[in-house]
Amino acid sequence: MQVTAxxxxxxxxxxxxxxxxxxxxxxxxxxxxxxxxMVTKASVDKLQLSDGKEAYAIIKASxxxxxxx
Length: 69
Known about the structure:
With 69 residues, this protein is mainly beta. The protein has one domain: CATH 2.40.50.100. It has one helix at residues 41-46, and strands at residues 7-18, 22-30, 33-40, 54-59. The longest helix has 6 residues, at 41-46.
């Protein structure tokens, strides 16, 4: 797999919550560190995503914001 994104995090799928059209896929990239992505249900099927499967969080963003209280 080759991508242009600089932030690629390998992890394990912990949970998939299917909605009507989309799905929330939660990936554990380190113990206790999770990232959740919104994807289409078609993508879940095409990539054969399931709990326990290894996958990658590929993050490509032009802006990342940080906030504090």
